[in-house]
């Protein structure tokens, strides 16, 4: 552990020297961690458990002269074999022997560091490889750390190095602990040369939370006169702080230096508040256990709710069951990469064109359906209780109010009594859905007495939406000018049309007027027209005006207007309803929807049967409506009751970027003909559709029809403006400081601040702003990622308390008054949302807390974003599953463009700065004075490399900053762990009906 270089120069000249860094180690996996929390999370991973059990170790059998992988479990299998026992009997020894090290072999050499057998031909390549070098460095470093943390040469270091919880007020003033250095050797000639912190040795010096000073002039250790150290904590901001105290000693008798280290820790927070949100049970990863298949013959059918018969369809939906070979492949134990390669080779067409279109998307639908079915397993309930009232059996479903799982009227839930000896399950149809429970009706054979009995509950995927999409894909409608438009399909559209506007606010907005004119004057059978609407640019207003103009000016116009979600369709319906009567407009709702889920003002525009279920008018009446509205998937109802293809002259699809291509094409392939005009509106720079299957995402299901069109040459904004696409550019939402960064990053700096000054300047000069004219705050918090029990979703207590503090300040400010409805809080993880709601329940219960998906299309005067992540080891997880904000530009874009007047981000800059987009945004805030909390550790004036590589740069800087290197070592191993099982826990379920 001796390192004279560091004493002479302040920084070790040996790039391989690892003595001065604050790292915790996992011996089994040869991995380094900076905090106890990170190490504890690692200890729960499959990789660690396998290594700890000896899975990767090679053990030798002297009886059989053979080597065996698999560690302890592999050894047990070997000693139980007939061959091993026969060899033992032949040699007259007991077969139950202890394993030894690997047996020498002419075909392999054993690497002690990596615990693997390596063929001689590969040996040189192995020892030069990165994995071997990393483990070699770890082995050397582990030895150094163990030595450094051990008292030695008769010197002992004692004291309180973990400050534990420190109240923020006390931490801001400063807290002191005393450490004592003693020697037990009477003739000791040891003196303290230096007492310093590892944090002071990084490439960019920051003000550390801790400081250390030797009390008094004495540095010579004697038995009767110890050396005292004062360790100070002074930090004005909440969060978790760690450092390593390095004590360098000189033994003048031996003429040698040696080092003793101690880890300093502190949590700046109120203990009671902090502990109120801590995990109630440690996180234990869920193991993959495929559901046993239930044959239809094992299910006793339940009683269908009346809602399922509310509409009489003249066509029958196809079953569209997943092909057996595909289902087997998706359920195999192969790696995701292998499965995808086999799917691509066997099932997917080599090119996507009009002939292969349906086959391509049908297989993507099946792949997604298989993953949805797998994800439903998470919500299965063991040992559930049922209660009975009249004919209904009530089942309490955890997470129902948050659509986790999403349950609709008409869905099927299977139950089986615990301990049942038969394979029989009872099918319960959902007749109603309440806040936290559902009402089921079973077959009359189901026992009427359920008191005191427990049941296993399985949720069954509602296949109606996916079957509707398959039905659309099965049609022969494959018009090239709609599926794959090219330049020759485009038509010239008038630059200006004299319009008598229904909404006069458009009169001074040239892009909106151009969009309406282009749609109005498009010839029949034109290729799709796209309204590209960045945040706050009035996209929906433009769509509403275009619909009204088409109805007024195009003879015989009939319009079908769709959107992916009911909420988006309701916005269209409400705004159109302001100028249209119930005889002009029909809003279709799936019969599974209840009346209390529908805005009261829209009920006159619906059709309700005698049972109180939504239904449809007779076909002749339906044909007389000027506008029909439904979700994208439910649009097939019109064809299902006999509406002829081509009845609708125009099909509008709003928020088209949030729908999958098969969803978008339910209306088009079922109802359009060669003359139908298609209009899409949305923003491909914001969130796309929610796709649960990583394989389906990789194969393109996450790319919406809108995004695919805008990637084509025919829809290039520079050459097709006004003919195929219009970009809206006036932003009516945000202060220019909030708008500026996403404007530059995503919209070519073309957006123009056009919002009311009284709205966007509301918090200028407020006490929340470090820079009084710049309404963005980044509050730096060094927190900790936590997970609880069996939920893999992350939460961060330190950020929860910081967000709560901001809400309390906003609510208590009498000068800058803020109501609950003025504040929106965005967090990328479901667990964080739940904890935040709990924290705010007694403070501001009316504040909306939700995911990025829940805020798309919305705005608030104040948006607070909690980024949650504080461990770099999980950045790779986010990269692969695109759940958080890191490395996901669309989620970032939506999150930061919701605020009108004040944007507050609470997060860990050390994690966020690994992504070039976030690093650029943090630099933008920092250079404009919007930073608060601990300082950044990089140069904000340095040009950001858009290709990234900041994680590699941190690793490359390991010689001078081993802390960063250690925390990133786990990020490399995360890629080796199969996290797909729990990846979708934070991905919302959508109701597309």
UniProtKB/TrEMBL annotation:
Record's keyword annotation contains Cell wall biogenesis/degradation: no
- Keyword ATP-binding in record: yes
| Sample GO molecular function, one term | hydrolase activity
Reaction(s) catalysed by this chain, per the record, are: ATP + H2O = ADP + phosphate + H(+)
EC numbers listed for it are 3.6.4.13
InterPro entries documented for this protein:
DNA2/NAM7-like_C (IPR041679), DNA2/NAM7_AAA_11 (IPR041677), MOV-10-like_beta-barrel (IPR049080), MOV-10/SDE3_DEXXQ/H-box (IPR026122), P-loop_NTPase (IPR027417), SF1_C_Upf1 (IPR047187), Znf_C2H2_type (IPR013087)
| One Pfam family, short name | MOV-10_beta-barrel
GO biological process entries: regulatory ncRNA-mediated gene silencing
Return the broad EC class: hydrolase
User: Which keywords, in A-to-Z order, does the entry hold?
Assistant: ATP-binding, Cytoplasm, Helicase, Hydrolase, Nucleotide-binding, RNA-binding, RNA-mediated gene silencing
Task: Name all C2H2-type domain ranges.
Answer: 26-48
Gene Ontology, cellular component aspect: cytoplasmic ribonucleoprotein granule
| Record's subcellular location | Cytoplasm, Cytoplasmic ribonucleoprotein granule
- Tell me its family: Belongs to the DNA2/NAM7 helicase family. SDE3 subfamily.
The protein in question is named RNA helicase
Please report the organism this UniProt entry assigns to the protein. Answer: Hypholoma sublateritium (strain FD-334 SS-4)
């Amino acid at each position: 552990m001796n390192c004279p270089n560091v004493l002479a120069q302040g920084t070790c000249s040996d790039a391989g020297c690892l003595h001065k860094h604050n790292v915790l180690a996992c011996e089994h996996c040869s991995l380094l961690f900076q905090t106890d929390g990170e190490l504890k999370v690692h200890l729960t991973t499959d990789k660690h458990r396998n290594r700890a059990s000896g899975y990767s170790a090679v053990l030798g059998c002297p009886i059989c002269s053979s080597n065996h992988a698999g560690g302890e479990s592999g050894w047990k299998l070997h000693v139980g074999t007939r061959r091993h026992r026969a060899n033992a009997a032949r040699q007259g020894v007991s077969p139950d022997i202890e394993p030894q090290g690997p047996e020498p072999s002419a075909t392999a050499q054993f690497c002690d560091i990596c615990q693997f057998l390596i063929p001689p031909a590969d040996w040189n390549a192995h020892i030069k490889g990165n994995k071997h070098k990393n483990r070699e460095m770890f082995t050397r470093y582990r030895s150094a750390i163990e030595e450094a943390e051990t008292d030695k040469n008769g010197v002992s270091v004692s004291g309180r190095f973990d400050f534990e919880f420190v109240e923020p007020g006390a931490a801001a003033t400063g807290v002191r602990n005393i450490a004592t250095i003693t020697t037990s050797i009477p003739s000791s000639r040891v003196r303290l040369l230096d007492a310093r912190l590892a944090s002071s040795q990084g490439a960019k010096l920051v003000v550390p939370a801790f400081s250390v000073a030797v009390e008094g002039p004495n540095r010579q250790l004697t038995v009767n006169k110890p050396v005292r150290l004062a360790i100070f904590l002074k930090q004005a901001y909440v969060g978790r702080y760690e450092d390593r105290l390095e004590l360098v000693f000189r033994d003048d008798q031996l003429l040698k230096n040696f080092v003793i280290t101690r880890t300093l820790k502190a949590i700046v927070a109120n203990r009671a508040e902090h502990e109120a949100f801590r995990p109630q049970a440690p996180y234990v990863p869920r193991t993959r256990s495929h559901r046993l298949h239930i044959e239809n013959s094992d299910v006793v059918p339940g009683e269908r709710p009346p809602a399922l018969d509310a509409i009489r369809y003249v066509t029958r939906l196809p079953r569209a069951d997943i092909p057996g070979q595909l289902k087997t492949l998706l359920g195999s134990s192969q790696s995701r990469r292998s499965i995808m390669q086999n799917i691509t080779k066997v099932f997917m067409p080599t090119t996507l064109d009009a002939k292969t279109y349906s086959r391509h998307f049908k297989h993507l639908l099946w792949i997604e359906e298989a993953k949805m079915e797998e994800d439903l397993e998470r919500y299965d309930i063991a040992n559930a209780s049922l209660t009975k009232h009249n004919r209904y059996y009530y089942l309490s479903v955890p997470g129902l109010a948050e659509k986790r799982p999403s349950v609709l009227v008409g869905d099927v839930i299977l139950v089986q009594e615990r301990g049942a000896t038969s394979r029989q399950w009872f099918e319960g149809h959902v007749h109603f859905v309440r806040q936290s429970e559902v009402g089921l009706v079973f077959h009359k054979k189901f026992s009427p007495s359920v008191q005191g009995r427990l049941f296993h509950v399985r949720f069954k995927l509602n296949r109606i939406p996916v079957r509707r999409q398959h039905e659309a894909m099965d049609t022969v409608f494959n018009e090239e000018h709609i599926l794959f438009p090219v330049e020759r399909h485009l038509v010239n559209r008038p630059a200006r049309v004299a319009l008598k506007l229904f909404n006069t606010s458009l009169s001074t907005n040239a892009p909106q007027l151009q969009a309406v004119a282009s749609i109005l004057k498009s010839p029949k059978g034109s290729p799709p027209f796209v309204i590209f609407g960045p945040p706050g640019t009035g996209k929906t207003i433009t769509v509403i005006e275009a619909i009204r103009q088409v109805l007024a000016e195009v003879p015989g116009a009939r319009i079908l207007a769709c959107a992916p979600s009911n909420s988006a369709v309701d916005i269209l319906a409400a705004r159109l309803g302001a100028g249209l009567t119930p005889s002009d407009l029909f809003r279709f709702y799936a019969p599974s929807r209840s009346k209390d889920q529908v805005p009261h003002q829209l009920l006159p525009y619906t059709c309700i049967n005698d049972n109180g279920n939504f239904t449809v008018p007779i076909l002749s009446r339906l044909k007389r409506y000027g506008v029909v509205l439904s979700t994208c998937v439910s649009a097939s109802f019109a064809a299902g009751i006999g509406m002829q293809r081509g009845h609708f002259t125009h099909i509008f699809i709003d928020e088209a970027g949030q729908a999958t291509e098969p969803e978008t094409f339910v209306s088009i392939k079922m109802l359009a003909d060669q003359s139908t005009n298609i209009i899409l509106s949305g923003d491909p720079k914001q969130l796309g559709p929610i796709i649960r299957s990583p394989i389906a995402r990789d194969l393109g299901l996450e790319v919406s029809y809108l995004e695919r069109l805008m990637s084509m040459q025919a829809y290039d904004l520079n050459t097709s403006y006004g003919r195929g696409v219009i970009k809206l550019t006036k932003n009516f939402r945000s202060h220019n400081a909030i708008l500026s960064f996403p404007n530059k990053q995503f919209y070519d700096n073309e957006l123009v601040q056009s919002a009311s000054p009284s709205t966007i300047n509301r918090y200028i000069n407020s006490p929340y702003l470090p820079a009084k004219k710049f309404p963005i705050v980044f509050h730096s918090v060094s927190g900790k990622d936590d997970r609880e029990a069996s939920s893999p979703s992350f939460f961060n207590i330190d950020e929860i308390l910081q967000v709560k503090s901001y809400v309390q300040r906003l609510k208590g400010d009498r000068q800058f008054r803020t109501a609950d409805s003025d504040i929106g809080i965005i967090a990328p993880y479901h667990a964080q949302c739940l904890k935040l709601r709990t924290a705010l329940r007694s403070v501001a219960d009316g504040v909306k807390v939700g995911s990025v998906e829940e805020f798309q299309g919305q705005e608030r005067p104040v948006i607070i974003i909690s980024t949650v992540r504080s461990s770099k080891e999980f950045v790779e997880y986010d990269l692969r599953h695109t759940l958080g904000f890191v490395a996901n530009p669309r989620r970032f874009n939506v999150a930061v463009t919701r605020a009108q007047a004040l944007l507050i981000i609470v997060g860990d800059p050390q994690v966020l700065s690994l992504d070039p987009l976030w690093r650029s945004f943090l630099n933008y805030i920092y250079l404009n004075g919007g930073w608060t909390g601990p300082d950044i550790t990089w140069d904000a004036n340095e040009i950001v490399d858009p290709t990234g590589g900041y994680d590699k740069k941190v690793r490359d800087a390991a010689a001078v900053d081993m802390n960063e290197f250690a925390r990133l070592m786990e990020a490399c191993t995360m890629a080796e762990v199969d996290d797909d099982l729990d990846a979708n826990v934070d991905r919302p379920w959508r109701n597309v009906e």
